[in-house]
Amino acid sequence: MTNAYQRRRDHRASTRRAAYSEKQHDVLLDINAVQKRYEDAFQDLYGELPKITYCKGWYTTTRRYRRGDIESQTDIMLAKKHEQELNAPED
After folding, report:
1. Considering only CA atoms, which of 50, 76, 45, 75 is closest in space to residue 61?
2. Model's pTM, two decimal places?
3. What CA–CA distance (Å, rounded) separates 9 from 24?
């Protein structure tokens, strides 16, 4: 039999776990979005799918990058692809 203190403690713990789980889900969605954007830009530019992984704040392709670096590289690749499309001869 549990007393009132134990019930309150269990309720606080379950609330904390639910909030953490929801926050973790949002973080994973954000990480996957960054990875997908990089993969799409890389594949559009070079025609092959890169291997990109995430672990403890680092995105790894051929070397380790932080989020800002990987986003700037993605922007650069998208700009190169756009430049290629503009310079492509029209049929």
Report:
1. 50
2. 0.78
3. 22
